[in-house]
Amino acid sequence: MTENERTSDIIDTTDCLEAISAFKAMKNFLFIISLICLLILQLTFWTNHSGYIDKSACAADAQEKCGSLQQCGAKDKCTQQTGDECASTGVMTLAAVIENEPADETEKPEKPKKTEVATDQDRIRARAKEATKELAPTETPAVDTPVADTTTTAPEEDTEVEAEKTADSEKFLLKCYHVACVIRACNFILIFSATLYSLTLLISLKISLIGRLGGINHISRAFFLSLFVLVILLPWQRCFPGMIVGAMFTPDELLCRWNITADTSIVERIAYHLRFVGMWLLVLLLLIGAQRRSIKWTTATLKRLGILH
Q1: Domain containing 224: what range?
Q2: Would residue 10 count as lying in a domain?
Q3: Is 228 among the domain residues?
Q4: What whole-number percentage of the chain has pLDDT above 90?
């Protein structure tokens, strides 16, 4: 092997090492950005789940949708009845009331005369006064009036304290619009960084093959894991609604579509947490696995070149 060939091999190896160092720095940067966006999205989910987001805008939209539909005696449900049906039910109830009323005035029970009622009331009052005079003590304690004052003022103070607590809790609620802006920004940055991360690993794989730097097993596994991250992360529910979902969610899906209450069944709760926590955890584990494999690739490359022992 001539000296020119050796020098060309050394130059090629150094060029590959310089390219790998550049792609390594970019790969780590994109990994950190993706990780931060994933953590912020999960933080918004738990903030919404804990009730620290003011979703009055979503409630207003729901009231506008239910406002066009009439409610005929149903509580807490938006029924599908029209105004004519409500009018018909009102006519039926009015007819039932008219049927229950007596037809003639003679059927109504006779009222006692006013004079007789007055005399009976006077007799009852006189007997009550005599009974109270016999049972009343000779001396009345002077401590009775302050007790009545304290009992009357205590509920007012409790209501004031409760009003102050509710006002303080409302101050710390996040606005629905601000949370939606954060989710949209994180989604854009996350899909951008995840795509570039996968492309960076692909180019690193090509450089390792061309420069014969070693660690092909680790970089190949890291590239495939990054592809899985990208596929699972994409919001497929926007393209194929009702068929498949992605780990990335929209503000409308988190804040308005899913509503977990005390009456929600266990199956819906499991689906709710799998949607927003399970898929997120799967993407996080795959992303960490790809980064771990890429670190092993760089270590194997340096060991083959004799830089690390």
Answers
A1: 22-66+173-304
A2: no
A3: yes
A4: 30
